[in-house]
């Protein structure tokens, strides 16, 4: 039961009845939401201000007519016009009791919707270069993308989780050379790893595997050929390592797309460039030097350019380098055309902070290759500053001195890693404080939320122990007289439960899973606060030995809170323990 959607429908129906000439597109702009100040009521709508101008009326005049209609509604205790034409509603306790019953009836499906209408969406995330294990810098995008995919699936989208493997280019050759050195080391040679190579110990097993398979054969062939063999072995090993790292956070992709498949004669890049030429989206020309470039850094030449400015980009983009090879952007265009041809009209790319300049160019590419039929949302995950003894800890794959995803999970666990990385907007930088994440206090958000779920479970254990004759089965909870719950504390908690469906829908549309983390944290706080009030007021205790009916009603409320916290943590990929050690 989405109380906000319900009243949106009722407000729109009232407008249709009073003004049948109103356009449906206009009515779609009507929203019902919580008022900014809770003292103003339970719900607020902008309806009068949306339709007043087309009707040639004053917003307050339209609002006054709507108020008269809702005054007679049995579930509305007060309705009034506020400010320039907002309408604020106060609802009866009865409607909040209906919300509580809906949570109990829908259980794990409470808050699910068909918002996405089964439309296919491709969420591409992580896509780290396969040149070493996942480090904490990748982890934020991995967790964000995975939670967003779960959120969209929860809201009725057909979601595909995709990883783009950057398995071509100069960094893969360096990886092959680094692995070949480890191969020589495995054969007994003393090696020195040059600057710019990958020195991490994670390539030692690759070298040993090459030695076991090839013996000294690789030493006897031209080095460039041996490097290619070592590269393939290293890429395969690194992808298995990355998949294992991700699995520690329960992240699994549906598709692993190889960039290499785009290249070569007849590959997607060539096919896409041919298509772009046929469509008139490519021309031969010169570009102005980019800002910040010195003349010696800039090659002024005639080149193949994509008309990106026709599709909203700041500049047209080069597709072919001076040596005849394709630019990275050429591969990007081909890859996103491949997605579109696979049937994805909705795409989400989760990229790191160093890719903020990609937003407009990727949007232009998708618009062009789909003739405007597809859309893309590029979500940038800002940097995570990992604190170690109060000091930032630098990470670099090539230095070998890196903090890996596995290191973080081993230190604080998968739940804490996921929740803490989601407890902040993706576009805001953050500190990941090991000391805070390991605390069992209210200052630790993940502990605070999981403790609320565990506390709810302990309340049921207390009821079983102290009131053994009270039936607290699901059937009994469903039949509980929740109408007995009339205190301000009860209604406040149920009102928060009623906000869950709207929260999920809003988070889905905005592609912001942090809203789910914020919500469950607020709900956890409300449960903890209610429990504290029960210490002073026996009538607010969850288990009241002298009143079995009230106890059962309160247990129905606790069960609903427990269920919604579990639903929210499930979207975030975080467990909901019944006990905490």
From TrEMBL:
Family: Belongs to the class-I aminoacyl-tRNA synthetase family.
The reaction(s) this protein catalyses: tRNA(Arg) + L-arginine + ATP = L-arginyl-tRNA(Arg) + AMP + diphosphate
GO terms for MF: arginine-tRNA ligase activity
Sequence motif: 'HIGH' region, positions: 128-138
SMART domains hit by this protein: Arg_tRNA_synt_N (SM01016), DALR_1 (SM00836)
Gene3D superfamilies (UniProt xref): Arginyl tRNA synthetase N-terminal domain, HUPs, Isoleucyl-tRNA Synthetase, Domain 1
Enzyme Commission numbers on file: 6.1.1.19
The DALR anticodon binding domain, residue ranges: 449-580
Predominant place of localization: cytoplasm
Record text on subunit structure and interactions: Monomer.
Domain of life: Bacteria
PANTHER family: ARGININE--TRNA LIGASE, CYTOPLASMIC (PTHR11956:SF5), ARGINYL-TRNA SYNTHETASE (PTHR11956)
Organism listed in the record: Devosia salina
One Pfam family of this chain: Arg_tRNA_synt_N
Gene for this chain: argS
Residue ranges annotated for the Arginyl tRNA synthetase N-terminal domain, each copy included: 5-91
Keywords: Aminoacyl-tRNA synthetase, ATP-binding, Cytoplasm, Ligase, Nucleotide-binding, Protein biosynthesis
Keyword Cell membrane belongs to the record: no
Cellular compartments annotated: Cytoplasm
CDD domains hit by this protein: ArgRS_core (cd00671)
Name assigned to this protein: Arginine--tRNA ligase
């Amino acid at each position: 039961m989405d109380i906000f959607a319900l009243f949106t429908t009722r407000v729109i129906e009232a407008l249709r009845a009073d003004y049948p000439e109103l356009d449906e597109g206009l009515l779609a702009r009507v929203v019902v939401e919580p008022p900014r100040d809770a003292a103003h009521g339970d719900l607020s709508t902008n309806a009068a201000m949306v339709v007043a101008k087309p009707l040639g009326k004053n917003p307050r005049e339209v609002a006054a007519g709507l108020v008269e209609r809702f005054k007679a509604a049995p579930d509305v205790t007060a309705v009034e016009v506020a400010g320039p034409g907002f309408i604020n509603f106060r609802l009866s306790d009865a409607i909040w009791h209906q919300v509580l019953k809906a949570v109990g009836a829908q259980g794990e499906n409470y808050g699910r919707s068909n918002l996405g209408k089964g439309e296919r969406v491709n969420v591409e995330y992580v896509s780290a270069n396969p040149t070493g294990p996942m480090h904490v810098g990748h982890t934020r995008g991995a967790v964000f993308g995975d939670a967003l995919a779960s959120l969209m699936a929860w809201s009725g989208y057909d979601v595909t989780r995709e990883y783009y493997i950057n398995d071509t280019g100069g960094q893969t050759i360096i990886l092959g050379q680094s692995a070949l050195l480890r191969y020589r080391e495995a054969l007994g040679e003393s090696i020195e790893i040059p600057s710019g190579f990958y020195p991490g110990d994670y390539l030692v097993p690759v070298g040993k595997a090459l030695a076991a398979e090839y013996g000294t054969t690789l030493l006897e062939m031209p080095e460039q050929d041996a490097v290619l063999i070592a590269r393939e072995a290293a890429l395969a090993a690194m992808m298995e390592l990355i998949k294992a790292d991700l699995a520690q956070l329960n992240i699994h992709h549906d598709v692993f797309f190889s960039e290499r498949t785009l290249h070569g004669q007849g590959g997607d890049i060539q096919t896409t460039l041919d298509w772009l030429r046929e469509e008139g989206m490519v021309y031969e020309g010169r570009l102005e030097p980019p800002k910040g470039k010195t003349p010696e850094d800039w090659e002024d030449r005639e080149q193949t350019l994509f008309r990106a400015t026709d599709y909203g980009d700041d500049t047209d983009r080069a597709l072919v380098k001076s040596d005849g090879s394709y630019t990275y952007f050429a591969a990007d265009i081909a890859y996103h055309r491949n997605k579109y041809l696979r049937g994805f009209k909705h795409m989400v790319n989760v990229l790191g902070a160093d890719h903020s300049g990609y937003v407009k160019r990727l949007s232009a590419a998708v618009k062009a290759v789909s003739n405007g039929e597809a859309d893309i949302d590029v979500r940038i995950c800002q940097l995570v500053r990992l604190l170690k003894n109060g000091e930032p800890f630098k990470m670099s794959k090539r230095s070998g001195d890196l903090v890996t995803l596995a290191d973080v999970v081993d230190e604080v666990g998968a739940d804490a890693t996921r929740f803490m990385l989601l407890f902040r907007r993706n576009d805001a930088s953050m500190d990941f404080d090991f000391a805070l994440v390991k605390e069992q206090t209210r200052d630790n958000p993940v502990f605070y939320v999981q403790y609320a779920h565990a506390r709810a479970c302990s309340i049921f254990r207390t009821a079983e122990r102290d009131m053994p004759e009270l039936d607290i089965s699901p059937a009994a909870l469903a039949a509980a007289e929740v109408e007995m719950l009339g205190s301000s504390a009860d209604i406040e908690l149920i009102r928060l439960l009623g906000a869950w469906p709207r929260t999920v829908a809003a988070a889905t549309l905005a592609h912001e899973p942090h809203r789910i983390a914020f919500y469950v944290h607020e709900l956890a706080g409300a449960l903890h606060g209610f429990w504290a009030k029960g210490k002073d007021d026996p009538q607010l205790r969850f288990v009241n030995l002298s009143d079995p009916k009230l106890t059962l009603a309160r247990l129905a409320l606790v069960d609903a809170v427990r269920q919604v916290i579990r639903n929210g943590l499930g979207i975030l990929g975080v467990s909901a323990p019944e006990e905490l050690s």
